[in-house]
Design goal:
287 residues, 6-PGluconate_DH-like_C_sf, N-(1-d-carboxylethyl)-l-norvaline Dehydrogenase, domain 2, 2 domains, six-stranded parallel beta sheet, three-stranded mixed beta sheet, alpha/beta, binds NADP nicotinamide-adenine-dinucleotide phosphate
């Protein structure tokens, strides 16, 4: 069992850190809003620290799940950042969805300090984090990945090394690109069914068993039809992710016309007050 630090106890981080504690690791947590760290320790045991640096001191692995590029820089760098507390040979594992550019920047800073770095964004949502069934897509050296994978296993259904540092984030972008167009198509299909006078449930029962079936259709059609969007992964986060995808596509000369359009549809949802609604709320703007 390892000595670990976990930074960021949000919707995803809190249950992930809980699985690490339940697996028997020695876990110290940090959260910007201190009350959440206190609540986590009251529920799971372990210890909490005042700063990322204090949490990271003496840890073999520092794991992290915060918000965006700037948030990640804030918990890693500076006098109170995790890197200042980590000992050479320790490995930083980042589960935040961020750009490949900030990932490479921080991995370089880590390497200069003798630290390992693995980018390890996740897919599977709040339910996947709570059930310990996340898909984890990693980038980093083979040695860093091999060391970190048994720790990540506490909350992973699948954990794979996709290539060097940044490759995990690029894989996560593939995931978001694949979801964006699909959720819009599903929204149009369900809204069309309803306006045509059909029962959405009956339509889905038939078409989900053929070529149109998808995880989104199976798991989201009921709540989409009911106008309930409480599944955790927020539209605000999705727009952050799609901006990352569109910038990365520009760099490699890839074309993402549908992704760019759906990003604008999510902007409409934000304007409707749905920034914290889950991503299936695309159907709300179809009236
Ligand atoms: P969340 O509930 O909003 O939690 C974000 C966490 O990051 C909180 O603990 C927050 O601290 C902390 N944080 C944010 N900015 C910080 C800063 N500048 N310094 C220190 N701590 C900071 O978000 P989430 O849903 O867990 O998502 C976290 C990441 O996972 C995001 O990158 C998201 O895109 C990705 N993700 C989410 C899902 C999902 O279904 N939710 C699925 C896959 C990937 P406070 O408590 O103080 O605010």
């Amino acid at each position: 069992m390892a000595k670990l630090a976990f930074l960021g106890l949000g919707v995803m981080g809190a249950p992930m850190a809980g699985h690490l504690k339940a697996a028997g690791h020695d876990v110290t947590v940090f959260n910007r809003t201190r009350s959440k760290a206190g609540d986590w320790v009251a529920r799971h045991g372990g210890a909490w620290a005042e700063t990322p640096r204090q949490a990271a001191e003496g840890a073999e692995f520092v794991l992290c799940c915060v918000g965006n590029d700037d948030d990640l820089r804030q918990v890693c760098l500076g006098p109170d950042g995790a890197f200042a507390g980590m000992q050479p040979g320790a490995i930083f594992v980042d589960h935040t969805t961020v750009s490949a550019a900030v990932t490479r920047e921080l991995a370089r800073a880590a390497r200069d300090l003798g630290l390992g770095y693995v980018d390890a964004p996740v897919s599977g949502g709040q339910a996947g984090a709570e059930n310990g069934q996340l898909s984890v897509m990693c980038g980093g050296s083979g040695a860093d990945f091999d060391a970190a994978a048994p720790v990540i296993d506490a909350y992973a259904r699948i954990c794979r090394r996709m290539g060097d540092v940044g490759a995990g984030q690029i894989t996560k972008m593939c995931n978001q690109i694949a979801i964006a167009g699909l959720v819009q198509a599903l929204s149009e299909s369900l809204a069309f069914a309803k306006k045509s006078g059909l029962e959405v449930e009956k339509v889905v029962e038939v078409i989900s068993q053929g070529a149109a079936g998808s995880w989104q259709m199976a798991n989201r059609h009921k709540t989409m039809d009911a106008g309930q969007f409480d599944h955790g992964f927020a539209v605000d986060w999705m727009r952050k992710d799609l901006a990352i995808c569109l910038a990365a596509a520009d760099e490699v000369g890839a074309s993402l016309p549908v992704t760019a359009l759906v990003d604008q549809f999510y902007k409409d949802v934000q304007r409707m007050g749905g920034g914290r609604w889950d991503t299936s709320s695309l159907i709300a703007r179809l009236g």
